[in-house]
Amino acid sequence: MGRDLLSRIIFGARVSVIVGLGASVVASVVEISVGVLAGYIGGTFDLVVQRFVDAVMCFPGLILMMVIISLVARCNANNSGVGNNMGNYGFAANKKCDHEY
Question: What angle do CA 36, 39, 43 make, to 5 degrees?
Answer without folding.
Answer: 145
